Amino acid sequence: MKARPNQRLSSQAMAFVLAGGRGSRLKELTDRRAKPAVYFGGKTRIIDFALSNALNSGVRKMAIATQYKAHSLIRHMQRGWNFFRAERNEYLDILPASQRVDESKWYLGTADAVAQNIDIVDSYGVKYVIILAGDHIYKMDYEIMLVQHVATGADVTIGCLTVPKAEATAFGVMHVDVDGRITDFLEKPKDPPTIPGDPAHSLASMGIYVFNWDFLRDLLLKDAEDPNSSHDFGNDLIPDIVKNGKAMAHRFSESCVTTGLEDEPYWRDVGTIDAFWQANIDLTDFVPKLDIYDNSWPIWTYAELVPPAKFIHDEDGGRRGYAVSSLVSGDCIVSGSEVRNSLLFTGCRTHSWASLDHVVALPQVDVGRRAELSHCVIDRGVKIPEGLVIGKDPEEDAKWFRRSEGGVVLITQDMIDRWSRAKL
């Protein structure tokens, strides 16, 4: 593609989103759906954040590589992201692992997922490729990262978080010089290298990479022929470029999109039950760490046609329908029940004298009368029996449901059915 004067770099780029992982640390939440398809924030899915960042940045060509239990994700893409028009030079391709290269090969690694679709990327006619993970929550302008990539003449530019040194042991960590060039890449080091001039912090990889497509294409073909490679960006390609090429670090703080209300750049890997629960509950804060009410940087998703939320009953004796410090989505009916510091997704029902405190309820959850729920995540479509109490007795909770290390209780319908049979 030949660039025009003053043309945004994002118009010459495509986003390749890696969305094939299960996310096993989310336990039963990913029994029926891949991690990127897990619900988040009241009406969106996790993958909507990476895709919205690309769209808002000016990227109009996207590909999503799927593998594990992809139906829920693919259906969401078809319903919520079907507005791209080829006549406007816009494209969104869903690329399931489909044995295109070899009948015995699925996607063997993150790099292999791109390598198996080289012909499709070629067809876009793009100059730059942005490799994205589909399972993180953040707002970022990729155009700023592209500008840095071109200005520095890098072979790869890697998005990096500034994290306390003590926390960096859980990440891939960049050792950089004073110019931001990456001189070493260490996977989960016991003694992480720190930022020059800042001994308290390290640079951790976000799993976001910008490449010139010509360079990446050659690298992928070379890697595909290497029998000793795991065909993974973090394990194979990135260390090779750090050693033999020019890898530059891009700090997330320079391209994080904020409204001025946030205290610090917000990025979360909601890969555990505790992290998932906390990130959703964070949205109920008076001043949330992530502002999802920013109309200048919307989070695009499947906009269901549903009626407004409704709150009914206002009687003495506690039969009063109300919500405080909570997010209540459309088609929810809070009927004579108390909702505090909670997040209710579309279509939830809470019945008389029930109480919810720090609860994340996914779509179509039904909470029976006099149920008392605290610090829990409820999977889609679960029917909470009348009078069930969760969050007061850790041993009883762990007996029937999944209780996390942080004390958050995950509830699925299978767990409820098992509990119900035992109580008969």
Automatic annotation (TrEMBL):
Alphabetical keyword list? ATP-binding, Carbohydrate metabolism, Glycogen biosynthesis, Glycogen metabolism, Nucleotide-binding, Nucleotidyltransferase, Transferase
What reaction gets catalysed by this protein? alpha-D-glucose 1-phosphate + ATP + H(+) = ADP-alpha-D-glucose + diphosphate
Please state the Enzyme Commission number of this protein: 2.7.7.27
What does the record list as GO biological process? glycogen biosynthetic process
Give the protein name, as stated in the record: Glucose-1-phosphate adenylyltransferase
Q: Which residues form the Nucleotidyl transferase domain?
A: 15-284
- What broad class of enzyme is this? transferase
Q: Which organism is it from?
A: Gemmobacter lutimaris
Under the heading PROSITE patterns, the entry gives: ADP_GLC_PYROPHOSPH_1, ADP_GLC_PYROPHOSPH_2, ADP_GLC_PYROPHOSPH_3
Q: Which sites bind alpha-D-glucose 1-phosphate?
A: 107, 172, 187-188, 205
Please state the pathway this protein functions in, per its UniProt record. Glycan biosynthesis; glycogen biosynthesis
Q: What does this protein do?
A: Involved in the biosynthesis of ADP-glucose, a building block required for the elongation reactions to produce glycogen. Catalyzes the reaction between ATP and alpha-D-glucose 1-phosphate (G1P) to produce pyrophosphate and ADP-Glc.
Q: Where is the Glucose-1-phosphate adenylyltransferase/Bifunctional protein GlmU-like C-terminal hexapeptide domain?
A: 307-411
Report the InterPro entries cross-referenced here: ADP-Glc_PPase (IPR011831), ADP_Glu_pyroP_CS (IPR005836), GlgC_bac (IPR023049), GlmU/GlgC-like_hexapep (IPR056818), NTP_transferase_dom (IPR005835), Nucleotide-diphossugar_trans (IPR029044), Trimer_LpxA-like_sf (IPR011004)
| PANTHER family named among the record's database cross-references | GLUCOSE-1-PHOSPHATE ADENYLYLTRANSFERASE, GLUCOSE-1-PHOSPHATE ADENYLYLTRANSFERASE-RELATED
